[in-house]
Amino acid sequence: MDNAEDLFRRTGTMLEGHFLLSSGLHSPIYWEKFRILQHPEFTGELCRLIADHFRAKGVGAVAGPALGGAVLAYEVARLLGVKAVYAERGEEGRAFRRGQTISPGEKVLIVDDVLTTGGSLREMLEAVRKAGGSVVGIGVVVDRSGGVDFGVPLFRCYRASAPTYRPEECPLCRQGVPLQRLGSFR
């Protein structure tokens, strides 16, 4: 998407400062995904890119992690004409609950909002495999990872070049810039 960064800035999705990410890393850039997910027209544009990329893969289900990934899974599944399933976090990783199923061998596309370290997506891969599904690919809105290999095709709507730091190595901490906890830390 040529105008993704502009879209993120206009909607206030791409924030600048000093942020604690859910991975535990620090960054001067944060994507507040719900600021774009609240706009169906923009979410639809991003999901269409993912759906179009994987359309020929014979996807039978689109899986996303609850919460933000569930919105994306629903819309990508709608565009592909297949079901959407959502994995919730539990004591033993992510799992499909509430009667949601993946058939043995079913081709599953995993989607998520922001890829940083890949932890959530690894949990999703494990949940799909435990359920008997076959992962055909992963689609993300923002990839800020710098390159994570999941062993399946990865499509991103936007590749970000935003640094991340371990807390003990963070230059923003050393400069005394206040750390903000957004998203799931609120």
Structure described in brief:
This protein is of the alpha/beta class.
CATH architecture descriptor: 3-Layer(aba) Sandwich
The CATH topology label is Rossmann fold
Q: Which structural class should the secondary elements be placed in?
A: alpha/beta
Shape by Cα distribution = globular
Q: Give a count of the beta strands, DSSP E runs of length 2 or more.
A: 9
Q: How big a fraction of the residues is strand? A: 25-35%
Summarize the amount of helix as a percent range: 25-40%
How many domain units?
A: 1
The H/E string reads HEEHHEHEEEHEEHE
Radius of gyration based on Cα positions: 16 Å
Helices, by number, come to 6
Order of the strands making up the biggest sheet: 5-4-3-6-7-8
Unreliable parts: none
Give the CA-CA distance, first to last residue: 30 Å
Q: In CATH's first tier, which class applies?
A: Alpha Beta
**Arithmetic mean pLDDT:** 91
Main sheet record = 6 strands, mixed
